[in-house]
Amino acid sequence: MRMRFKPYARAELLAADFHIHDPFHLQGQWHQQFARPQQPLVLELGCGKGGFISQLAAAHPENNYLGIDITDKVLILAKRKIEAAYAAAGRPIDNVRIMSVDIERIRTILSPEDTVSRIYINFCNPWSKNASSNKHRLTHPRQLIQYRDFLADGGEVYFKTDDDDLFRDSLGYFPAAGYEITWQTYDLHQDEPAWNIRTEHEGMFTEMGIQIKALIARKLPGPDSVTWVEPKRRAAPEGPVPGSGD
What we know:
alpha/beta; Rossmann fold; 20% strand
């Protein structure tokens, strides 16, 4: 379902101290955006309405958290959930930041100096209409290789999805991009781990009888661990195009 435009969203986000208004000038300086820059930095890519990151960050003051989504109309909901979670915990919002960015451009935001210890990807768009759209998946090798730039060696990616095809394909994506899958399940709730935080989407899919798939992958060191090679684009034909009249 397409979310309606929220004309108030930008102004409300700009008024929030924990919203990053211009992230493109902070590459290499992300740890310094937090009150305790020495703490581990954790990302949620596609934080959506904020149900996950708000609970996680409020419960773990020992880490710093950065939530990223593509539009303000979604991020405004995350902003409000974060405020509510921290109010309930009785603590200031000092270890979480949020921003609107196209994750396909993440290399323009984060650099190797912005060492990240863990990445969460929860219920991202499966892009399963046709094979050509698969490259936009947040677990596609094109993306996973970008994450290698700033994810620490041995750093982990936690991935959850309801989509069978996306999960099956991701089981191949991670090793090809230089990650070792250390844990996986086709039914997360059958023996639910203590670290799991159920998101709004997770509850909805579970009520529909859809099993939640999940995995944890660890980044392997060195470029030799990456075996995926981006397909070359077809070269444009030389000479006049038939029927062009040239």
